[in-house]
Amino acid sequence: MSVYTEPSLATAVRVEKLTRVYGSVTALDAVDAGFGRGTFTAVMGPSGSGKSTLLQTAAGLDRPSSGRAFLGDTDLSRLSETRLTELRRRRIGFVFQAFNLVGALTVEENIVLPLRLSGARPDRAWLTTVVERVGLGDRLHHRPAQLSGGQQQRVAIARALATRPEVIFCDEPTGALDSRTAADVLALLRAVVDEHGQTVVMVTHDPIAASYADRVLILADGRIVGDLPQPGAVRIAEHLASLDRRTAR
Ligand code: ADP
Ligand code: MG
């Protein structure tokens, strides 16, 4: 199944025949997909279906074996390592299941770290907005270890937002959180899209988490096998179950 989107200003991220091979494993098999600006997409599928590989190659964290990934008009495959690192720091945000905060730094220092690394001038007004939006105003001088899992993930989201990136990739951001805390984090990602027009692409196993998205892409064996616009949690769960039945046969 192909969900190719024509290049356009309305597309934040686009991948063309994106393929990643590890030894004898084809983790991603000629995937075509586009992600509209200001949209929230959930990427689902069985373990090992290529979800993380899609995020990492689309985000320039990993190079594809063939095919191309575009951020806006920029073809990542044409960039040197240095330029790619620069682009990642300035134009892309990441949120991982394990938070990946720096334990020795305060909340505030963690949030501005990508800005420091990219050498960009901090936009103070935006940082204030971000800190307020994630509800961390009274925790700025705490260290990550003094925070709950949900708070730590909110710091990671604030950090991902600090450079005002065009797109935020999240790989199972709620995988380590209880359902109440997860709901908080998902509402925050939803608000980032609705209030600030950013683009979010989120891998998740949880149909309820996926129901916060505008669209659900389903991967199996490195290919897109489903593209559901605004499905509810029930339809998502049914779709995944039918996939299980097909692969079990
Ligand atoms: P998912 O995130 O959907 O669980 P991944 O993208 O992590 O799937 O992995 C897809 C396939 O690629 C799996 O078979 C996995 O074992 C393989 N794979 C992923 N990363 C590597 C790697 N660095 N080295 C070798 N195989 C890998
Ligand atoms: Mg994964």
Can I get a quick summary?
This protein has 249 residues and is α/β, with parallel strands linked by helices. The chain contains 8 helices and 10 strands.
**CATH fold title of one domain:** Rossmann fold
Give the tally of β-strands: 10
Mean pLDDT: 91
Oligomer: single chain
Terminus-to-terminus distance: 20 Å
Q: Return the structural class.
A: alpha/beta
CATH class of one domain: Alpha Beta
Strand content: 25-35%
Q: What is the count of DSSP helices, taking H or I runs of 4+ residues?
A: 8
Question: What's the main sheet like?
Answer: 6 strands, mixed
Plain-language structure description:
- The chain is of the alpha/beta class.
- It has a domain at 11-104 and 169-248: P-loop containing nucleotide triphosphate hydrolases (Rossmann fold, 3-Layer(aba) Sandwich), CATH 3.40.50.300.
- It is 37% helix and 26% strand.
- It has eight helices and ten strands.
- The longest helix is centred in the last third of the chain and has 18 residues, at 179-196.
- The protein is globular, with a radius of gyration of 18 Å.
- It starts with 10 loop residues before the first strand and ends with a helix.
- Bound molecules: adenosine-5'-diphosphate and magnesium ion.
- Magnesium ion is lined by residues 51-52.
